[in-house]
Each structure stands twice: as structure tokens, then as C-alpha cells.
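DM between two lab members

TW: hey, do you still have the tRNA-splicing endonuclease subunit Sen34 entry open?
JB: yeah, one sec
JB: this one, 314 aa:
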Amino acid sequence: MESDPILLPIPISYIAGSYFLFSIDAVTYLRREHHICGVLSGTLPQIPQQNVFLGLPLKLMPEEARLLVEKGVACIVDEVNAQRAGMRALAADDRRKYLRELEAQGAHAMRLQTSRKELQREEALRKVQAKKAAAAAKKAGADAAPDAAGATAGSDEPAATENPSRRASTTTTNSEIHAPYGTTMGITPATSHPPLPYSPATSTTLPPPAVPPSYPLFAHLHADGYYLSPGLRFGCQYLAYPGDPLRFHSHFLVVAADWDEELDLMALVAGGRLGTGVKKGFLIGGAEHTRADDAGIMGEPESVRTFSVEWAGM
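TW: and the structure you got?
JB:
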């Protein structure tokens, strides 16, 4: 099935100094078409302590948000003001209907959760009863073995008896409430339903985000086709992947530097050795400025130059 077309610009929610995407369609579109990966930061509704497989919302670096805004693909939305404006825009009847729908969804989810727990409890009791019945039958068979040796084959009494475990299973089957595991809570929507009114042209939009001095290097590598992600776990600014991180390992540990910045030789050695040790290159880059004018003020950056360092000594 083809997904619905993405409406541009995509709203990026600005909340408490961070940038988030709550739409799975927007996340997949930006990853596929614009090489924007971000970092998943949400947890499952019923397992708030899990931290291995995270979900929506997707948190973006300021550099990623700025790049999308400059391309005209996205806009920054003050989410708090947008929510307040959206709630004010709803009529009183629509607001009450919206709240009733939320309450009905919560009550329905609670009923499903209760039925699933009851089903699991009955299943556990059935297994316990079946084990007890099997143990009793085994013990009864061992006690009746000497008497069965003297019994005649032509006895008129029926020998078949009902299996207690089968009787217990029949009893619990009649009281089962079907609530398959995994569908108890359904799929948690990424956005409010029905969605609040939103227009990119409203006063809730914000200017492009402020970015660190490393942004020219970020934009340069992104334009060359690299996928970039935060490099905190390797002690650098970015990790550069030649393709989607789901398919490739990163190739470079990226650190930005000003054009006239003096570099510490020990930092170069440490970065080169670290990059080589984790089978990556250590990449340093920065914006190359034009010559200073008569007042000594550097001009706008002309281009970005990059250098890769690898440790080759023993």
C-alpha cells in the first residue's frame, strides 16, 4: 500500500529547547528522501522502564532541523502555543466531544487489559489443574494395578471415565474472552485524533534554530550523501555513514574546527588512534573563509575542506 502524500512543510515541534517529530509518515519520508535519521526517544506506553527499543517521538539535532528549514522541507512550530491555539480554535461542543473520545478510548483499553489478565489467569489455573489431574491419575493407576490383575475381561461395568483435565478445559473455554496478546492497547497514535487545527502560516512558527559553528561541516557532508548522527558514544561531534545506518557501519568520526584554529597534536593522535581502533577514519573539517578585509574582518565561508587522519604507526 502507498502511504498518503506528505504535506510540506513538515511541522517540527519545538518543546523545551529540543526539536521533535511525532508523525511516523514524516519520519520515514525524511529518512528516505533527505537522509535525516534523528534519535528515537519515546518509550512504550505500558513499559515505561524499557530503554532498548525506543519509539516516537524522533528527536532531531539543531543542525538537522536547520537543514530541513533551509531546504523548505520543514518549519519550526512552538508546540506549546500551537496546542493552546488549537484548543481555543475548537468549538465548545467539539472540545467536549474530543474529551469524551479520549475517555472512551481509555475505558476501552482498560477493559481489554482486564480481559487479557483474566484470560491469562484462567489459562494458568487450567495448566495447574491439568498437572494435578495427571499426577492423580498416575497415582491411581499405580494403586489399581494389583486389583486389575484379578479382574475379569468380561466385566459389564464401563471402564471409561472422563478426564478431569478435559473437564476443567471445557469449563474454562466457556468463560474465555478473546483478547489476543499484543492487541490489548492497539496502536498508539502518534498524533492527537482528531488532530488539532494547524497552519504553517500561523504565529506559532519560529525562525530557523540556532546551530553550532560545526554546521557548515554538517551541511557539507550531508550534501555529499552521508547520513549523520550524534557522535557522543565515540567522543566526537558526528558519525558519518555512507548509507542508511541500518545497512552500514559509520566510516568517519567527525570533528569540526575553525579555519584558523590551532589544533593540539595530542588531540590529533588520540582521534586518529581511536578512529583506527574502531575501524573508522578520524575526519576534521571546517569552513574556509575568504580573506579578511582592510578592517580585519573575515568574509563569508567559501567552501568546506575536510581531512581524514588514520593511525599507521605501531
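TW: got it. Residues 212-313 form a domain with the Trna Endonuclease; Chain: A, domain 1 fold (CATH 3.40.1350.10). The helical segments are 24-34, 62-70, 79-89, 92-149, 164-174, 215-223, 265-277.
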